[in-house]
Structure prediction request, 176 residues.
Amino acid sequence: MKQKQVTKQKKVQTIKFKSNANSKISDGKADIYGNHILNMLKVRNIKSITAKDVLDDARNETTPYHDHFDWDDTSAGEKYRLAQARQLLCTIVEVKIVHNEEVPVRVFVNVIDDEGDRAYVQTEYAMGRPQMANQVIAQALREVKTWSNKYKEYIELAKIRNAILNVEKEIIIEED
Prediction:
């Protein structure tokens, strides 16, 4: 099978950094953090960095993102276990047969429930209630738009981005 050659992209100049759409980091902080990390790469004369490198750098109280991390082992441990529980709930899928093909479907989705709390409910239950279904579809659209924006510079993916825009125009999401 022939592999299509990827077109060389134009060099893009970064003016400033921003946080992505669902981030809890402000754009101002994202700009400071991004510049700090780029400077770290330059100073160390390296081309790649790991999460461990950033964490080790953040241990220094003078780094701009030191306060972004939870340094209290008790609360950090609890937050980590909560993240593991969320990941567990997102990982469980039910296998359905669609057109003689196995299709994995998430069992639980995260929504604001009937009591007004953020919680996980069975997908089937959520999709049977317009307010919850709206939340699920809105989240899916946010995720696909984030993906589309992430790869905006690749002309090879333009057809996919256009399809995403067309679907977005067809779906009306009522904001809660």
Observations:
- The chain has six helices and four strands.
